[in-house]
Design a protein that fits this description.
- 69% of the residues lie in helices and 0% in strands.
- It is globular and about 50 Å long.
- The model has no long low-confidence stretch (mean pLDDT 95).
- The chain has 150 residues and is an all-alpha fold.
- The chain has a single domain, classed as Leucine-rich Repeat Variant (Alpha Horseshoe), CATH 1.25.10.
Length: 150
């Protein structure tokens, strides 16, 4: 890995991952975003990555929404809540007609793993969504949280 990092003119993988993410976003290059996410994930995501991922999570120019939802969820940071709620209810153009709604389910799992009453309130709100998959995933997370608390 050190050779790869050096080949890109960087001294560490974290910096390389950030640079590649920023370049992909600036160029709105979807395949580049996927590759940059792999590089960044290989060296570890941190607080700087978090802000970048929030910014790009709902952009239409890429198709990496599911991976971004999963990565944001891994932070277990309540600041991701509004973005995860948006990802739970939004259907990107490339997923229109997809009844599985993997993006929604991943985002709702992320919400379910967030601490605090704000996340629980968001899950309750999602139980009233018009989409059956969203409702059922939110209900499941509320039950799971109740079992963990009890």
């Amino acid at each position: 890995m050190a050779k790869i990092v050096k080949r890109f003119g960087e001294t560490d993988g974290r910096t390389l991952g950030l640079r590649l993410l920023r370049e992909a976003i600036d160029q709105q290059y979807g395949d580049g975003l996927v590759a940059a996410s792999v590089v960044a994930g290989s060296f570890g995501f941190d607080a700087e990555h978090f802000d970048i991922l929030i910014r790009v999570a709902t952009a239409e120019w890429h198709t990496d929404h599911e991976n971004i939802a999963t990565t944001l969820a891994s932070y277990r940071d309540i600041r991701a809540l509004p973005t995860l709620v948006k990802l739970a209810t939004w259907i990107p153009q490339h997923e229109e007609g997809d009844d599985i709604r993997a993006l929604a389910v991943k985002a709702i799992w992320g919400i379910g793993n967030l601490p605090g009453s704000e996340a629980e309130d968001a899950l309750r709100d999602l139980t009233h969504d018009e989409d059956k998959v969203v409702r059922e995933a939110a209900e499941y997370q509320l039950v799971r949280r109740a079992k963990q608390a009890g």
